[in-house]
Specification:
single chain; about 550 residues; alpha+beta; Immunoglobulin-like; 2 domains; eleven-stranded mixed beta sheet; five-stranded antiparallel beta sheet; 10 helices; 26 strands; about 15% helix
Length: about 550
């Protein structure tokens, strides 16, 4: 599989971005990009040769006519107000959204089969995705690759907020890489270190892209991302000192032989003169990139250059903190959500969206998917900004059907500058059948995160040339205008208690019933079936001795 096929221009790139956070934590973001030079969706041809692109995913794209596929597994919650915006956001648990080709006749059938296949590939519980937790967003999830599909009948979106991410999910994810975990940046992906962190997220994104500016040739892009945040005290043993070995228990020794580009970026934007932290070994290579509306400066370590590893053939980046990092600039867009109310009959969902821009207003698209057992009273929906009603300019609502589909609510809301906008809606809890409760019903039922999508005003001019050679972490979402950039924010998932019967009562009834049957019926049955015999009473000891003497003497015995 490692021989270059004649005419093949498949490419593989790998990147690691290390960003010291203002909280003292370390944010490490891995990105692996594989370009597959084929266009089987247009040619409808059978692809039999795979060089760098994993065959398992290629067969999935071909069999189910997938145009785009995005899947993520996340453990923990991204703290936007402490860490800023991530490069690629993801909600807690599992998230899957897929665009199918417009030639698919049975989208729901393909969706069901696809989730079962992906469940096996990634060793996850995606087979629990069905029509009761699947929605068709009308505006929130547009294609990120080629094409401008607007028919949302071919889009499916679902989340499993309770999905637990562990080693069995990481291992198949690493096997999709051309070099596996044997060489390159992937040697740092050690499970016992990655899962001993404050936040961990791994994702797979597949989409068609252009290979040149005129888009004369197309290719499939597989982008595997892994984001992890290491806590200062749990991972650094309480010392303000970081290194690759302390974070991952490994050092870098070589680039992946199949990679055309292998680089490590360290964000030094807040450390221009070295007064905040010291980075060693030093590198003269610097790079600037516009990321999330801000111009950032990075120290670049090119792993394809042999001199980067030194005489020991090992690269171990070391970062020593010198002073306090100061306060972080508040993100321009932030959202949170919570449940209000008391009792187990009614409640209220509050979604709060913050626009921290001092003088610019901009619209946001809010999407909520609520399970059917929370019956929304949509007439109680209110949107307020600065204590005034804020009427959405667009509302799409699809009511739920019991045990068939969830609620779907999408709204386009204009956020005033430097404001807090609150969206509230009341609901009533349904009473489930006793077979529909989870094994631990008193823990509660999870409701997936709200999704807030927006074009946020940029501080600097964004780069609109999508095909230009630029770092992977700054080129995932296409930029169509220089004055704004796209941001997607996920709120916390909700944990809602439902009316729960006393599942121990059947056990108590069974025990009481069995006791009554055993004591009552058992005694009655014994009286009916037992046979009674009359036993003659035995004589006292004195009479028996007298009778013994009388027998010897031949005298009649006493009665």
């Amino acid at each position: 599989c490692c021989q270059r096929h004649p005419g093949s221009v498949d490419q593989f790139q790998e990147e690691l971005v290390i960003r010291p956070l203002h909280s003292g934590d370390i944010y490490a973001s891995f990105q692996f990009r594989t370009l597959w030079d084929t266009d089987f969706l247009q040619e409808r041809q059978k692809v039999s040769h795979y060089r760098l692109f994993p065959k398992s995913l290629g067969q999935v794209l071909s069999k189910f006519s997938v145009r785009e596929l995005h899947i993520s597994f996340t453990q923990g919650f991204w703290r936007t107000m402490q860490w800023g915006q991530p490069f690629i956001p993801s909600p807690p648990g599992a998230e899957l959204w897929v665009w199918f080709h417009d030639t698919v006749s049975d989208v729901d059938g393909n969706w069901k089969e696809l989730t079962n296949v992906l469940s096996g590939i990634f060793c996850a519980s995606l087979n629990f995705i069905d029509l009761t937790n699947t929605v068709q967003p009308s505006a929130s999830f547009k294609p990120l690759g080629l094409g401008n599909a607007t028919d949302h009948r071919f889009l499916r979106y679902a989340t499993l907020p309770r999905e637990i991410v562990c080693t069995e999910n990481l291992t198949p994810w690493k096997k999709l890489l051309p070099c596996g975990s044997k060489a390159g940046l992937s040697v740092l992906l050690k499970s016992e270190k990655l899962f001993h962190s404050s936040f961990h997220s791994q994702a797979v994104h597949i989409r068609p892209v252009c290979q040149d500016e005129q888009c004369t040739s197309k290719a499939w892009e597989l982008r595997q991302t892994l984001n992890v945040v290491f806590d200062l005290y749990t991972s650094g043993q309480g010392k303000k000192e970081w290194s690759l070995f302390k974070m991952f228990s490994r050092t870098l020794t070589e680039a992946c032989p199949l990679a055309t580009s292998s680089k490590v970026y360290v964000d030094i934007t807040d450390n221009p003169e070295g007064e905040l932290f010291e980075l060693s070994p030093a590198t003269p290579l610097l790079s600037q990139a516009v990321v999330l509306g801000d111009r950032r400066t990075y120290s670049v370590f090119d792993l394809t250059r042999a001199e980067m590893f030194g005489q020991l053939r090992s690269l171990n980046l070391l970062l020593r903190w010198k002073g306090d990092s100061g306060d972080m600039l508040r993100p321009l867009l932030h959202a949170e959500r919570y449940v209000a109310g008391f009792g187990l009959q009614t409640g209220e969902i509050h979604t709060v969206i913050y626009n921290n821009h001092p003088y610019r207003a901009f619209p946001v698209l809010l999407m909520d998917s609520v399970p059917w057992y929370l019956q929304l009273y949509i007439h109680t929906l209110t949107v307020t900004s600065k204590s005034r009603d804020n009427k959405p300019s667009y509302i799409h609502y699809q009511p739920a059907k019991d045990r068939h589909r969830p609620h779907l609510l999408e709204m386009l809301i204009q956020l005033p500058p430097h404001s807090m906008t609150e969206v509230t809606v009341q609901f009533e809890r349904a009473l489930l059948k006793w077979t529909e409760y989870t094994p631990d019903p008193n823990h509660g039922f999870y409701v997936g995160s709200s999704v807030v999508s927006a074009l946020v005003p940029s501080m600097v001019a964004m780069n609109t040339n999508f095909t230009q050679d630029q770092p992977l972490f700054s080129s995932f979402v296409p930029v169509k205008e220089e004055s704004s950039y796209f941001v997607r924010v996920y709120t916390e998932p909700l944990l809602v208690n439902l009316p729960t019967p006393d599942f121990s009562m059947p056990y108590n009834v069974i025990c009481l019933t069995c006791t009554v049957v055993a004591v009552g019926y058992g005694s009655f049955y014994n009286l009916l079936t037992r046979t009674f015999q009359v036993d003659e009473p035995s004589l006292p000891l004195a009479k028996r001795l007298a009778n013994l003497i009388r027998r010897i003497r031949g005298v009649p015995l006493l009665a």
